[in-house]
Amino acid sequence: MAVTLARQAAAEAVVDLDAIADNTRLFTSRTRAQVMAVVKADGFGHGAVVVARAALDAGATWLGVTSLTEALELRDAGLRAPVLSWLNPLGADFEVAADRDVDVAVPSLDHLALVARGTRVHLHLDTGLARDGAEPEAWPALCAEARRAERAGRIRVIGVMGHLACADDPDDPANEEGIAAFEDGVEVARRHGLRPALRHLAATASTLNDPRTHYDMVRIGAGLVGIDPSHRTPLKTALTLTAPVVSVRRVRAGTPVGYGHTWRAPADTRLALVPLGYGDGVPRGVEAEVQINGKRCPIVGRISMDQLVVDVQDADTKPGDTVVVFGPGEGGEPTVADWARWAGTIEHEIVTGLGRRVVRR
Ligand SMILES: *Cc1c(COP(=O)(O)O)cnc(C)c1O
Question: Is residue 203 within 6 Å of ligand 1 at its C-beta?
Answer without folding.
Answer: yes
